[in-house]
Amino acid sequence: MSTMTAGRFIPEREPKRLFHVTNSMLATLRRGGADLSQLGIPALPDKEDGLELWEDVAVPKANARALAWTNSMKAANHDDYLKWRFADLDDYQRPKALQGWLDSLVQAKKERARPDTMHFIVSGNIGSGKTTMVSALGNEAASRGLLVRLVQHSTYLAWRRPDGAPDGMSRYEVRRRHVEDPDLLIVDELCGEMDSLQKEFVRRETTDLVGSRLASGRPTAFSTNLKGDGIKAILGERLLSRIEDRVYVAKVVGPDRRAPRRTLDW
Prior knowledge:
Layout: H1 3-8, H2 23-31, H3 59-75, H4 95-110, E1 119-124, H5 130-143, E2 148-152, H6 153-160, H7 171-180, E3 184-188, H8 199-215, E4 220-224, H9 228-235, H10 237-244, E5 247-252
Parallel strand pairs: 1-4, 1-5, 2-3, 3-4
Helix pairs in contact: 3-5, 4-5, 7-8, 9-10
């Protein structure tokens, strides 16, 4: 081999044997959540502890799903809510009901069945702790290997408008990420800050979201400040009836957590 040839020889850039998996390829596959057990490669041992997964979920895939949940929370500016678990909730925030519903979702996933209760609605006044509740649900679900995403209702609708999606995503990619992919979707602030001028677009897009997830047997949790009549005025009676089908409603009656600790003199 000449000096010139030797200088151009870089092992990392040379053609590889057929079916040879390099370390770089492994790192890329792990970041993407690939099931490396299909290649005969064991999961990373230091990330197995603490995950209660059903049988067919590999640890690398579970870690990728947990990252998807974290990213959706950051996109909603809910980083502070990533710390909450059921054990941190007060009794009026219904931790046992949330835990029971999550257990039923995991069991249905294990059995490849449709959950008996498809929707979980958290309803209450502003500042009563609804977002904390659904965040705890998402945190717990992600830790058990479910693919979970949270999105605010108004944000999802904005992303579905022409040229409204972030990071160069298409409208189809927004829909796939939130409607087709998640095992559990959490829609925060259902019908929040909406008026009658938006009715046609809101109803069309929300009907697609709810109807498609129902048809595929994928559960959805909602939080809202509105009561049934307020939601019906925006979404319509037909769509509300679809949401109310096979639903558990948790009404939150508690103190306003956002209120100042002392009266402010304005």
